[in-house]
Specification:
Length: 137
């Protein structure tokens, strides 16, 4: 639900989960760079996958309903998701490039490896250890 916070009916679902209030602004999805840094280096417990909307729906990146999502401790008010510089502030361009990457020849020729990790024989057992597809806590 957190990726879709700016998009109804997910906004309403999120508010129900949070007792009628948005979460603290510093913990909400607001920046692709911050999300990447959190999941890849800062917080190894921050396990997130890209949802299908990253490849077809720019609306989830925009706060077109003008929800009052809060203000971070830095003073930054949350609104549209902050996109990487290559997207030039355009959610449609961000989605276009993501979809282009998903549909490229490299991904097409290697997607079976990801399927093996997520749904196949590399999910568990010795094959998962060999593929470094294990979660240690």
């Amino acid at each position: 639900v957190s990726y879709l916070i700016r998009l109804e009916p997910f906004t309403e679902h999120f508010l129900r989960l949070q007792g009628g209030h948005f979460d603290h602004a510093d913990r909400m999805f607001h920046s692709m760079a911050d999300q990447w840094a959190s999941a890849s280096e800062i917080n190894m417990a921050d396990i997130k996958e890209l949802i299908p909307e990253f490849f077809y729906l720019p609306d989830f990146l925009q706060n077109n309903n003008q929800f009052k999502l809060g203000v971070k401790q830095s003073g930054q008010e949350l609104g549209h998701v902050i996109l990487p510089p290559w997207a030039k502030g355009d959610a449609h361009e961000f989605i276009r490039v993501h979809r282009e990457a998903l549909e490229c020849d490299y991904v097409t020729s290697h997607i079976h490896e990801w399927i093996d990790l997520i749904f196949g024989y590399k999910q568990q057992g010795p094959a998962s250890v060999e593929a470094h597809n294990v979660f240690h806590h």
